[in-house]
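Hey team,

Sharing the RNase H type-1 domain-containing protein run so nobody has to redo it. Sequence (77 residues) first:
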Amino acid sequence: MVESRLEKLDEWVIRQVSCEENGKANTLAGIAATFPIKEAVMLPVYLKVAPLITPEGGTRGRESKRANSAYKQHTSL
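Structure output:
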């Protein structure tokens, strides 16, 4: 399939993209690598944008305790 599409182009370049440059694709590849391969399966992928939860700073009082608790639960998975 790829070769047939490349034949239609007059000029093309293959370039390797580093993991640092394309972190989302690297993450997705890591997830896909954990699935056992029995047959080809199409999985829908949704990107959910969420603020980063850090153990320090950014919040005060009760909000800080909730953020720290959420961070600890997330990192212990």
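The chain has a mean pLDDT of 70.

Ping me if you want the raw files.
A.
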